Amino acid sequence: MSAVKMYTTQVCPYCIRAKALLKQRGVTEINEIRIDVNMAERETMMALTGRRTVPQIFIGSTHVGGFDDLAALDQSGGLMPLLLAD
Length: 86
Fold this sequence. Notes:
The chain is of the alpha+beta class and 86 residues long. 44% of the residues lie in helices and 21% in strands.
């Protein structure tokens, strides 16, 4: 399964929903990067994505986006092929 990296904060309902969806799809490990703890990581996230909001989700080297983007990808049938690619 492809590696999943997610930029998050401690109190983020969309981060919780994204993690739950990924776990439902078989993801057992998420590299969670807390941008509320390390401000340098926030800058890195913004440089990589051009976005300021969390979650920001990467599957392998693909930037999926936030929770709404992840849910849309799942609805369109694109999430599982991305997760299963290696």
